[in-house]
Prior knowledge:
The structure is a homodimer. By secondary structure, chain A is of the alpha+beta class. Helices cover 21% and strands 29% of the residues of chain A. Chain A contains 5 helices and 10 strands. The longest helix of chain A has 13 residues, at 30-42.
Amino acid sequence: MKCLKMILQYDGTNYNGWQIQTGQAKSRTIQGTIQEALYKLTGEKIKVTAAGRTDAGVHARGQVINFKTESTIPVSRFPKALNSCLPPDIVAVAAEQVDEQFHARYSAKRKLYRYTIDVSPYPDVFRRRYAYHVPYSLKLSRMEEAASYIEGNHDFRSFCAAGSSAKNFVRTVEMCRVSKRDNIIEIDVMANGFLYHMARIIVGTLLEVGKGKIKPEDVKRIIAAKNRDAAGPTAPSHGLCLEKVEY
Amino acid sequence: MKCLKMILQYDGTNYNGWQIQTGQAKSRTIQGTIQEALYKLTGEKIKVTAAGRTDAGVHARGQVINFKTESTIPVSRFPKALNSCLPPDIVAVAAEQVDEQFHARYSAKRKLYRYTIDVSPYPDVFRRRYAYHVPYSLKLSRMEEAASYIEGNHDFRSFCAAGSSAKNFVRTVEMCRVSKRDNIIEIDVMANGFLYHMARIIVGTLLEVGKGKIKPEDVKRIIAAKNRDAAGPTAPSHGLCLEKVEY
């Protein structure tokens, strides 16, 4: 029996998120699709665990999963073998053997999410599945200032959607950075953990700042409120991508 | 009555090319979709003419069309109005009034096509619809040399697919350039006109050079042969994009 760690890329557009939904037997999820592919490949019913349980429509460039298998396929050939059983919008890009203690989520030290905003007057068709189109002029320096207040060790209850099972809302945002190139704004958020919808609520709040609806300093007040209603709206899922997980 | 010139972007993945196919009434084309959108917007049955009649699966970032309309919608607002009637994979990005002599295809001085190749070991999921995945090491300097022999005023019969209605096969390729950044190779071809499948046969031939199957100098022999069988295969359509048309 081997314990494997794999890195996945996926286009989340056509999936109802990472996690298999009990009850919604027919909804297509990333986890379900991978487990089916593993079954086709190995004949085993394998349960896979992911670092980030991404929402419906969210993408990944560096999702990490772990699972156990009796397969004799050499580890170095596992990604290619699995890809032959996967649809083209999910791709395994690396695999390595890990010890039994490794857990994709609990062992993770930090995760990096990137949110992409297309500020072109008309949406870029080639980015429409991966970027949120906001055809307004956004005040970048104000968004940068607001992002700096997100960084640090805070109680992020204001940035947690209802339905979360979290009991402790304190997380450390090691980096929250806004950058622009041509008509694309990227918001990178790196943290030791993310609450339910946290990255998207941070982005929704920074967009309120960029549109001039609230001031950068208001972010401090929003954090202190410890109340979801204080923060901005949840930005749409299709702009978000899980870029990297570090262990 | 106004004559309009418009610039379009489209993701060609889900279309059977630019041109309405007589006989295949049900096949979805870019031209048909735009004419339907114009009908919804203006109530007029408008015929649109394109600079490049792109094949099934080919994309455009700078397709140019022209058409006549009685509509009173101000020209500056026309793209946004039309976009509200178009599916999200076709976007009008600019419009201007032109005189009646303007013809998107016949008036064009040159067109630029770009072909994108993904040489990552595993296909990049976010580029899979827009880049041809070639997981081999390609000899870039040899491809560059081969591309230089494509440039110039030649009889391109060897690079013209059967089914073309062309009588004159002489075209001027003003630029044929190969460049690489990270795992992406781009082949830019600018010419005063393109024969049927010409850009894709040029790319297919340059790929044969990159893989070491033929030598860069062989391109001279292939041009001289004036025979389609002398050139390489036709590269798949989804890597090709009509970038720009100049008048």
